[in-house]
Amino acid sequence: MADPVVQKFALKALTSLPAPLLRAFSGGGVVYRGGRTLDPILQFLAYAAAAKPAPWTLTVEEARRAAAEAFAAVAPRPKPGIHAQSVRIDGPAGVIATRLYRPEVQDAGMPLLVYLHLGGGVWGGSETAEPFCTRLATGAGCPVLSVDYRLAPEHRFPAGLEDALAAFRWARENAARFGAPAGHAAIGGESMGANFATVICQMLKAAGEPQPALQFLAYPMVDLVSETPSMSLYADAYPLSRRLIEWLVGFYLKAEDDPGDVRLSPLRQTDLSGLAPAVIVTAGFDPLLDQGEAYARRLIEAKVPTVYRTYDNLAHAFLGFGGVVPAADAAADEVVELVRDALASTPAPPPPI
User: 26, 226, 290, 316: which is the annotated catalytic residue?
Assistant: First the structure.
């Protein structure tokens, strides 16, 4: 196996080539679909990835290692000026490992933000989420708690969701320990992590509990039975294809689970009123594009304060590609600003009596 540092250096050098050369090395031509043009670096990365074994040809452990290596190769460096510590939380089935990031300059008015990583409920963890979590903590001035929830197929639905909910409730009750307003926390995540965040907001509403300060959803998976146009138009997209979605969901669900259950497909919830304010971002070249847009539209119709942005030239998971894709790096900065502004406009709850 090649040295990861050497691999990253070589990839950085290759992706620094002019766009025409990158496209020439990627089979030539411009990738243009649905009125969008794919970033030439992402086009090159997709072409290179196609030469490697597909995840569904590997064992789960092999696929996890391959995904971790792929994300490490394109990830930006974690932001400096962060104090990180491991925090262990009592969960419904044992200890939940989490990683807490606190910026050197923390805004005491900003709530703690619970962050849920991507990976279809099958792979990923606090390591893959760390670069963006440090960027979020630094840029928004808030503590960020990254959760290593249980993964399938060892722990299928609803294990990961239950861990995420337990971690959020713990964070809400313990926020003051980390310099954030007491009894107040926000929640966010990417892809399946964003699915958990939406479902948790809906579950808290059903339980009569306070809503999070914010729900931050990056390219969310909110409808497991979706048949929208983007699922077909971008079916073979990189790094998330329709085939990969089906493979991951096949491990995540048990045979008896109903994919239309609102705990799996929260877009199918009939009443979205009264939920937390939302920041939702999507990528143009992503089978999940229509889902995120539809959820944002539903929230707006329900009069939930919502900010929605789509990044037409980028692809799923772009928040983790800033190490080699300048457009993704710039988008990540903009996303942090959106989250910071949304958190700043959310009033903290009154202090406990």
Answer: 316
For residue 148, indicate whether it is catalytic: no
Q: Say how far apart CA 336 and CA 49 lie, in whole Å.
A: 28
Of 157, 309, 351, the C-alpha closest to 248 is: 157
pLDDT in tens, 251-300: 999 999 999 999 999 999 999 999 999 999 999 999 999 999 999 999 99
Indicate the SS3 state at residue 48.
helix
Which member of 39, 148, 286, 290 is catalytic? 286
**Which residue is catalytic, options 146, 191, 226, 241?**
191
How far out from the chain centre does Cα 293 lie? 15
- Looking at residue 353, what is its pLDDT? 41
* CB 124 within 8 Å of CB 117: yes
Q: CA triplet 336, 340, 342: central angle to 5 degrees?
A: 115
Confirm whether 316 is a catalytic residue. Answer: yes
pTM of the prediction? 0.95
Check pLDDT > 50 for residue 182. Answer: yes
Helix, coil or strand: residue 220: coil
d(CA 151, CA 55): 16
Q: How confident is the model at residue 10 (pLDDT cuts 50, 70, 90)?
A: confident
Positive or negative, the CA dihedral 245, 251, 252, 253 is positive
pLDDT at position 272, please? 98
Query: Which tens digits make up the pLDDT trace of 56-99?
Result: 999 999 999 999 999 999 999 999 999 999 999 999 999 999 99
Amino acid occupying residue 352:
P
**CATH 3.40.50.1820 in the chain, residue ranges:** 76-344
273 is annotated as an active-site residue: no
Sign of CA dihedral 44, 45, 51, 54: negative
The CATH T-level fold of domain 76-344 is Rossmann fold (3.40.50)
Q: What is the DSSP letter of 158?
A: T
